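This part of the workshop introduces the protein records we will be handling. A learned vocabulary of local backbone shapes supplies the integers on the structure line. Getting from the letters to the tokens is the skill we practise here. As an example, a complete record with its sequence and its structure tokens follows.
=====
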Amino acid sequence: QNSWDAYLQHALGARTRRNMRRALRQVEAHDDLSVTQVDKNSIDRDIEALLSLNQQRWGPNPKAHWYRSMMRYLFEKDSLWLNVLWDHSSPIAALAGIYDSHKDVFSA
């Protein structure tokens, strides 16, 4: 059974499951939160949100220009996954990943 409830029940311990459900209730009760997925209209905004959050946490990154170029290139190749969590219009979290958009490459 592949579902969120099955994951919570079978993959997490009781304490973690309880904490996860409590955290999710708190997020759901916060009306001003939203999650965006990168698209052609938001690519620059979302990359800047990610880099800004990274800089706030870790300080200036001399490779920021390279990361910006790399993420734009990956987006153009349909290989960038980037979501941003917003509180109103302020980014509060962002996560990026690279994936293989050519799923049939490894099929037999």
Q: What stands out?
A: The radius of gyration is 17 Å. The helical segments are 4-11, 14-29, 43-58, 64-76. DSSP finds four helices and three strands in the chain.
